[in-house]
Amino acid sequence: MKIFGAGARPGQPSVYHHRVLTVPNVLTVVRFMGVPLFMWLVLGAREYGWAVFVLAVMGGTDWVDGYVARRFDQVSELGRVLDPAADRLALLAVGLTLVLAGVIQWWYFAALLLPDVVLGTASLFYFRNHPDLPVSRIGKVRTAFLLVGTPLLVLSKLRIPGAEVYLALAWLFLVLGLLGHWVAGYNYFWAIVRKGRGVRSERRTGEPHGGRDGAADDGGGRL
Questions:
Q1: Of the candidates 200, 185, 93, which has an alpha carbon nearest to the alpha carbon of residue 135?
Q2: In the chain, N or C: fewer CB atoms in 10 Å?
Q3: pLDDT tens-digit map of 186-202
Q4: CA distance 134 to 163
Q5: 179, 199, 82, 167: which is closest to 139 by C-alpha?
Q6: Which of 56, 166, 154 is nearest to 98 (CA)?
Q7: 171 near 104, Cβ under 8 Å?
Q8: Are the C-beta atoms of 126 and 193 separated by less than 8 Å?
Q9: Could you write out the DSSP letters of every residue in the chain?
Q10: 53-77 as b/e, with b when 16 or more CB fall inside 10 Å?
Q11: Measured between alpha carbons, how far is 109 from 92 in angstroms, rounded to an integer?
């Protein structure tokens, strides 16, 4: 079964539409809404079982919205920005929640946050906006590891058989996810720098940014 890029039709490149109300965008909004619910379940109600369920739903919508967008030609300009933003918000908010709940240490959240701070600063410096880079394969694998490891970590806090096994598996996925997070961040940073320099050069010369620089941008972003 194809996990990454599932739903894509061979030979038919994605066309970005300007529609806002699409099924993938609705699913992404649902993912946004799952963040405060998860925070309340962990910090307020202390219902870790339901918190795991919410995380599973959030992780499921991350895959389903991409599949629907590609399979039914609902890839949109809004979704291209909204989907990764929802992923970042979810991972950071969930990480902060688990720190506050005493489930993980601050170093984990700092390791998760620092690359995003660097990338956000670089994007503002070069573009004053979103750099509009394609999501890399490493970035997708990173997100998958973190989305699996986090609910396993929460699950290990329940009084259930095999909690120690869940804890070990959780940290295996989380460490791999953090490593992928830093590798993806490194590559995204240089992709932003290359594209940003090209854009600045275009502004100075008045010539379209493309050719060799454009190819470098694509390679740097996709990995």
A1: 185
A2: N
A3: 999 999 999 888 877 87
A4: 38
A5: 179
A6: 154
A7: no
A8: yes
A9: ---TTTTPPTT-----B--SS-HHHHHHHHHHHHHHHHHIIIIIS--HHHHHHHHHHHHHHHHHHHHHHHHTT--BHHHHHHHHHHHHHHHHHHHHHHHHTTSS-HHHHHHHHHHHHHHHHHHHHHHSS----PPPHHHHHHHHHHHHHHHHHHHTTSS-TTHHHHHHHHHHHHHHHHHHHHHHHHHHHHHHHHHHHHHHHHHHH-PPS-HHHHHHHHHHHH-
A10: ebbeebbebbbbbbbbbbeeebbbe
A11: 7
- Read off the tokens for 75: 């890839």
* Token pair belonging to 38: 């998860």
- Joined together, the tokens standing for residue 70 give 């590609």
Beta carbons of 15 and 75 less than 8 angstroms apart: yes
Q: How far apart are CA 181 and CA 140, in angstroms?
A: 10
pLDDT digits (tens, 9 = 90+) for 13-49: 556 667 778 888 899 999 889 999 999 999 999 999 9
Q: Residue 50: CB partners within 8 Å, gap ≥ 6?
A: 41
Tokens in use for 83?
A: 């989907």
